[in-house]
Amino acid sequence: MTAELNRVTRALLLAFALVALSVGYWVVVEADSLKQREDNARNVIAEQHIMRGTIYDRDGETLATTRTLDSGLAQRLYPHPEVASATGYYSFKYGASGIEEAYDRVLRGDDGTTWKTLINETLHRPQEGGDVRSTIDLDVQQAIAEAMGARSGAAVVAHVPSGRVLGMVSRPGYDPNTLNADWQSLTVDATTSPLLNRVTSGLYQPGGALQTVLLAAILGSYSNLDENAGFVLNTSSAQASEPVRVNGLTLTCLPGTPDEPLTLAEAYAYGCPGPFVAALNERVSPGQLWERFDVLGLLRAPELARFRTVPAPSIEPLGPDTSPDAYLAAATGQGALTVTPLHMLQVVAAVANQGNGIPLHIVDAVRAAGEDDWEPVGIPLYNPAILRADVAEVVRLTMLQAAAQSPAVRAAQRGDLVLYGHAGVAYAGPDATPYSWFLGFVDQTQGDEMTAIAAVVVLEGEADPAIAASVAGDAFAAATGGS
Q: So what's the pLDDT on residue 328?
């Protein structure tokens, strides 16, 4: 009898030991994986109670905040839906985008100390997130949104040389306050979806907007612009305004072009493709143009600190084997190369910034929950030279001339602002849908340090680039206090 009891006792002890080891394994070894499971009810409840921090504009205006409902659940609020292109959205069901995604850990409070997390869990207090200060200027954002109206397209405005993004509008847009209710209608068509941020991820045919890049390539083919710039820019051509045929398209100068011989500088002002095709064929090989695309960052995803941007599509490189037709398409911006507004902003900013790129960013500081002081976020200080300084200076002067001569560019003029710009039209798709572009900046230099406000606007289905320029003009006025 005693032997049988001992066997039973040993069996029970072994069973208890196995249970204890199993519990220990799941509690200690697999604790983190259990906690992270999406079907963990405690996680679901805790997530719905997180008090995400506030997103502010550069002047302290609230762009996104959180309130507690009577049920105890947290609700994200966006007082200014027109800023959704920058703030993005946060949804418990559908995730996050924009600043909400890029600074999710800060806004959730996941970057806090372990002891704070432990205290919150012990006292069953909801997790509280930190705040984010964006570089967005609400006045600029609202001016762009109002000027664009119901038109589809994108606009982005930045300070040079700091790289602070002051405004970012993508149309069609959406109201992040009603995202959950509207989700199905917002995702019907992935191509035209309002959830697509056209500034960071919209790939467009550059068309005539590429002439700034082409002009830089032509000028860069001369080692001494002190001797050659005048000759390059001011030699007249009687055929300058003749149309160019490419891929079944007939490309012409912009409306209002004088019926007279034009120089290359005047052809740039009026968006005439012929002189650029001729100059590239004479001075710039396909491989050299491809190298220029690469140096300017047009062949890779554009950079906006911590933001997801669209990867550049893989296209056939230009080189010795490039056919004349393919080179003609590339030389008119109607080839395989497509760009985002951010790509073009980097180009025009480099022209304004003596050939140097700028560190584009949309957030400059964060602060932990309960703290008063803002902590600057790390912004890259390295500004790569993407244009020769002398090339940038000549392109800059050519953009100033274009602002004086071109009716389309002058549509961006506001008050006594010193305007530099270029306007162009691109055509895309089987229906040759027009896209109007404006690229430019206004000089804000005071003293020894150069500063400017740069803008890029693209409007879909719009053949008149003066309308794109006018959108930029309203943005310039808002950014400079209506100067």
A: 97
6 inside domain: no
C-alpha triplet 242, 243, 249: angle, nearest 5°: 175
Q: Are residues 166 and 71 in the same domain?
A: no
182 vs 424: CA distance, rounded Å: 35
Average pLDDT over residues 203-227: 96
Residue 35 and residue 47 in contact, taking contact as beta carbons nearer than 8 Å = no
Q: Same domain, yes or no, for 229 and 298?
A: yes
91 in any annotated domain: yes
SS3 282: helix
β-strand pairing of 131-134 with 55-56: parallel
Burial of 439 (0-12, 13-18, 19+ CB in 10 A): buried
Task: Tell me which H or E stretch contains 458.
Answer: strand 452-460
What pLDDT digit, counting tens, does each position of 129-143 carry?
999 999 999 999 999
pTM over the 0.85 mark: yes
The enclosing domain of 302 has a CATH number of 3.40.710.10
Tokens of 390: 């002398």
Q: Are residues 277 and 400 in the same domain?
A: yes
Domain count, the chain: 2
The answer on 222 and 107 residing in a single domain is no
Residue 14 falls inside a structural domain: no
Let me know whether 158 and 108 are in one domain: no
C-alpha triplet 155, 158, 160: angle, nearest 5°: 145
Q: What is the pLDDT of residue 448?
A: 79
Q: Which two tokens stand for residue 439?
A: 């690229």
Give the relative orientation of helices 225-234 and 211-220 as an angle to the nearest 10 degrees.
Answer: 130
Given a contact cutoff of 8 angstroms between Cβ atoms, the answer to whether 479 and 140 are in contact is yes
Evaluate whether residue 420 is within a structural domain.
yes
CA distance 455 to 157: 4
Task: List the domain range (segments joined by +) for residue 102.
Answer: 46-119+129-134
Q: What is the DSSP letter of 216?
A: H
Contact call for residues 444 and 453 (beta carbons, < 8 A): yes
Alpha helices by DSSP H, 53-152: 84-87, 98-102, 104-108, 114-122, 138-148
Based on the domain organization, do 102 and 169 belong to the same domain? Answer: no
Polymer length in residues for the chain: 483
Q: Is the Cβ–Cβ distance between 130 and 109 less than 8 Å? A: yes
Q: Are residues 162 and 112 in the same domain?
A: no
Is-contact 132 105, C-beta < 8 A? no
- Amino acid (one-letter) located at 71: S
Q: What is the CATH number of the domain that holds 77?
A: 3.90.1310.10
pLDDT digits (tens, 9 = 90+) for 396-447: 999 999 999 999 999 999 999 999 999 999 999 999 999 999 999 999 988 7
226 vs 350: CA distance, rounded Å: 20
